[in-house]
Design goal:
Elements lengths: L3 H7 L9 E3 L8 H9 L12 H18 L23 H11 L6 E4 L2 H9 L6 E5 L14 H11 L6 E5 L5 H9 L4 E4 L13 H9 L3 H4 L5 H4 L5 H15 L1 H11 L1 E8 L5 E8 L4 E4 L10 E6 H8 L5 H6 L4 E4 L1 H15 L5
Parallel strand pairs: 1-5, 2-3, 3-4, 4-5, 6-9
Antiparallel strand pairs: 6-7, 7-8, 9-10
Length: about 350
């Protein structure tokens, strides 16, 4: 099991006894919160903004706060680097990891997981992350559809990575010292908190939202797991469908290999929303059996591309129509290997049985 000394060797400002990691929360984790956590001896993460430009501005502000702290000899921030490298979420994780490590070997790769299958998949790949954030069902963020409680999954993952050098961070439902102690006893090196930090003064949050978080009680009854936030960022119904397809492919490694043998193609979907905005996803069913944004994994081209509306894709995913029907009605355009396009319906059908949009 990794020790805290391995963290302090990389992040010299953190507390040498125990420290808290501020979970990466979109928009909410701004420069003020991130630097406050780090100055207190923890490790803060800047969350992505609503737009790329927002993140650039956040990094500039964080850099200004760090440089301002350099003038204070008592501030932990005087030990912080003034530049940050962030890894965007990408399904084509291996390509991102290889590229980042080639240009910046010291950059840490952190991966959040919610199932044992995900850990097995990571351990079998040619690369390995530096840190695994083990997220339990109790987490308030974007959780895994098949997640289980932290107290169950954490020790199992710790045993799986024993001797690998991978550090373990526990996340989900940890709100005080008792939760921290429990996670450390189960084998975590450290813990990450997200929802608990929403009560802080530095978090970027509306007062009404914050008060509702503080007021909430009886969480088991009053907490609802929903795909709502999966729909909100881009306004596409298809976003949730591709999340489901991704989960379905990851859930069963044996079945995933069978799908790859059957399809042997990278399939791209360009979907047009009601506002004429377009988004593109791909299914890599040639090598890895994963879902990603864009028309193909880095450095590759799709074998077949499908063009259709957001509503028509949702109908196709729900099994209420077929590629043949959409094509005959002029609602689907196909470029490339048409036979590969017909095989994709079995993949959608298997994924659809896992949820209803």
């Amino acid at each position: 099991m990794a020790s805290i000394e391995e963290f302090t060797a990389i992040f010299p400002w953190i507390s040498t006894k125990s420290f808290i990691i501020g979970a990466l929360m979109r928009i909410l984790s701004g420069p003020a919160l991130t630097t406050a956590i780090s100055e207190a001896g923890g490790l803060g993460f800047i969350g992505p903004g609503a737009k790329t430009l927002d993140t650039v501005q956040d990094l500039d502000e964080a850099s200004h706060r760090v440089h301002s702290a350099h003038s204070s000899h008592t501030s932990r921030l005087s030990h912080l680097p003034s530049a940050y490298d962030l890894l965007p979420h990408a399904s084509d994780l291996e390509a991102w990891t290889v590229r980042i490590r080639s240009v910046s070997p010291s950059t840490q790769i952190w991966i959040q997981i919610g199932t044992v299958d995900e850990v097995q998949g990571l351990l079998q790949r040619s690369y390995r992350p530096d840190v695994l954030v083990v997220q339990g069902l109790e987490a308030g963020s974007h959780g895994h559809r098949d997640a289980i409680g932290l107290i169950t999954i954490l020790p199992e993952v710790v045993d799986m990575v024993e001797g690998s050098g991978i550090k373990i961070v526990a996340s989900g439902g940890i709100t005080d010292g008792r939760g921290v102690s429990a996670a450390l006893c189960l084998g975590a090196t450290e813990v990450a908190m997200g929802t608990r930090i929403l009560a802080s003064t530095e978090v970027r949050i509306s007062q009404d939202y914050q008060q509702e978080v503080i007021r909430a009680t009886n969480g088991g009854v009053n907490t609802v797991r929903t795909l709502l936030y999966n729909h909100l960022p881009d306004g596409f119904r298809s976003s949730a469908a591709f999340d489901v397809i991704s989960d379905s492919l990851r859930a069963n490694p044996t079945e995933r290999k069978g799908v790859i043998r059957s399809v042997r193609a990278v399939v791209a979907f360009t979907v047009k929303g009601s506002s004429e905005k377009e988004e593109t996803w791909h299914l890599d069913l040639k090598d890895h059996g994963i879902v990603g944004r864009g028309s193909a994994p880095s450095g590759q081209k799709p074998d077949v591309s499908l063009y259709l509306s957001d509503d028509d894709f949702a109908t196709l995913f729900e099994g209420k129509t077929s590629t043949q029907k959409l094509f005959m009605k002029g609602k689907l355009k196909i470029r490339g290997n048409i036979l590969k396009a017909t095989k994709i319906e079995n993949v959608l059908r298997k994924a659809q049985t896992r949820t209803n949009l």
